[in-house]
Amino acid sequence: MTSKIISVGNIIAGGAGKTSVVVYLLKILYNRKKIGVVIGKRIKDEAELIRKNFPFVLVSNEKNLNGLRGIDNFCDLIIIDDGFHCNWIKKDIDILVIDCFNPFDNKFLIPAGLLREPLSSVKRADIIILSHPYMVTEEGKLKIVNYFKKINKPLFFMDFKIKELKNGDKNIPVEFLENKRILAFAGIGNPFNFFYLILYYKPQILYSISYPDHYSYKKEDIEVIEKIAEEKMVDIVLTTEKDFIKIENFVKNAIFYYPVIDINFKSIEDSNFDNLIEKIIK
Question: Which domain holds residue 204?
Fold first, then answer.
């Protein structure tokens, strides 16, 4: 392989924020690197999100050695989405994303728990990111940090902030959410992280609907959501950008929006995430 390879993955089944990290990497490297992203065939919504926001990024749905070789000659850098378990390829950076809200589930492997491999595999990571810190108490965060400090790898909190609300070409400020009646829905690994983030902006009331991860919406689903929005007299309907891409052809109601999310990385031990990435892949 001639390309540098970054893997972004997690250790338990479900959403930890991997896609947010992939998108962040694309934002900071997009104008200076020829980038390919490898995504599994099942995960079509992430692929569509990347194609929409980064049209010059090469996206491959073959998460295997042949898939990487197929795009290697066209790229300086390849990012593997959900690649922590891809031990068949040597990576330049292995980023592990851990959800603070549910870091290790019950510590049992699938099917007894949600762990995809033993906890000891955490030591393979080059960088560890603790996502959704707003979902736990300060005491809970300290407990998680103390656990990972023993591994002695660069450690970061990844926090989320809503920058604005978007609907096609229309944007409205996030301050609009305060004291509003909101209906939110999501088909992601952990929709409660999304709902809780909305609560930070002090709505009057928040109604929420959860769908399975990577849910394929049908027209009938949107009609049900529109009916609930009318019955509850909500001011706005919110979903994630990944979900919005899948429903926009069905939506006729102008109150459907998705939040544009900004993320930032706070080092636990005085490291800079961007500089660390640059140093390894330059």
Answer: 162-261
CATH of the domain at 198: 3.40.50
CATH number of 35's domain: 3.40.50.300
Looking at residue 222, its pLDDT comes to 94
Same domain for 83 and 117, yes or no, is: yes
* End-to-end Cα, the chain, rounded Å: 16
What pTM does this model have?
0.91
Confidence class of residue 64 from pLDDT cuts 50, 70 and 90?
Answer: confident
Bridge partners, 263 (sequence order): 160
If pLDDT is split at 50, 70 and 90, which confidence band does 15 have? confident
CA neighbor of 237 nearest in space, from 199, 180, 189, 188: 180
Q: How many separate domains does the chain show?
A: 2
CB atoms within 10 A of CB 152: 9
- Six token digits for residue 105: 């589930």
